[in-house]
Model the fold of this input.
Amino acid sequence: MDSTAATSLASLWDQVSGTQPDPDLWVVIATMVAALAVIVPHGVWRVSRNAITIAHEGGHGLVALLTGRSLSGIRLHSDTSGLA
Done:
């Protein structure tokens, strides 16, 4: 690996794994409001929890494919648990 690639890789790793500055207060509050808007109303929560589970299990599926494993499907159960 040449020094430019090694430097770029080291820089990327520092950005990914390094300590990040605290977010601004408005970002924290906006995130809290968005999270509450998704989970507090019962009708919205029934849909959003399925979307959250699909995204979660999709992450497992993506990592499986990226690491060379096979994926036959993703199941979402009625209790919103899932299996990838």
About this structure: The chain is about 65% helix and 5% strand. Residues 42-66 form the longest helix (25 residues).
